[in-house]
Amino acid sequence: MPELPEVETVRRGLAPVMEDAVVEELVLNRPNLRFPFADNFHELVEGQRITSLGRRAKYLLMDLSNGQVIIMHLGMSGSFRTLDEKAPGNFHHERGKLEAHDHVIFHLRRPDGEQAQVIYNDPRRFGFMLMTPRAELDQHKMIRDLGVEPVGNALDGDHLAQKFANKAAPLKAALLDQSIIAGLGNIYVCEALWRTGLSPKRKARTLVLKSGKPTARALALVDNVKDVINEAIAAGGSSLRDHTQTDGSLGYFQHSFAVYDQEGNACQKPDCIGTIRRIVQSGRSTFYCPSCQG
DNA sequence: AAGTGAACCTGAAGGC
DNA sequence: TGCCTTCAGGTTCACT
Q1: B10 C1': nearest CA residue
Q2: Domain range holding A277?
Q3: pTM > 0.90: yes or no
């Protein structure tokens, strides 16, 4: 499920628990997720302090005091939950109680001396955890080809135009391409295209003028991508706090989308009489309004 | 080279 | 009830 806003939400939830904590014990309940754990994964993690929990695109980056960083990806079904001595519910009662697909458990000692656990659960196991020295992170296979973050100064109309120039792929595919913009997924691409009134089937190069400059629609698309991501992060943050108060888990949150998973529903754009339709592009569902997305 | 589809894996939901 | 098919928010690999 996780696109950039969900990963950022998870990061913000985990950081207060994990940063500056020492990993007293690391439990791996299977030898692999999507990829095998490194042979020395255990020894590189246990006893280390977590110096920071960062994010790049859809990757969580866990920096350790020995200079290693764990590159984590949640795949389609990965999630974290935390158990904290201070949290409601009973930490000691819960300790050791595993649920199906609990693959990795971090047993932590916080600077104040209290204990906490962070548990990674992933039914489909498309997620992974890879270890690399921080100094080599930018050259890592999973990181080196990533495009710009959607939020921030790096993404602007000129950048998008340069990447979309001569591109025959449909907008849907071009926006999902992590080497162009890193962090967008199926939901927010559908939402951003709908907001901009652009057909997901339109070729990416049609947003670039002969001069190489972005069209007005391209500029609007950039704004809508940023807005949709920022709004989702804001929504995730607020519902995450609610969630943590009840059971201490960190996962996904309910959203209402304008087009994603809205097949058959009326288009919400003012004055549009269209009906949201589902098509398949590159093997993935695209939701859009055939009436106002031209 | 770029673009599309299949594969990886489990579980939930819907049709019969 | 059960069995079957389809689908899922991601990425990589193998093909045209």
Answers
A1: A124
A2: 157-288
A3: yes
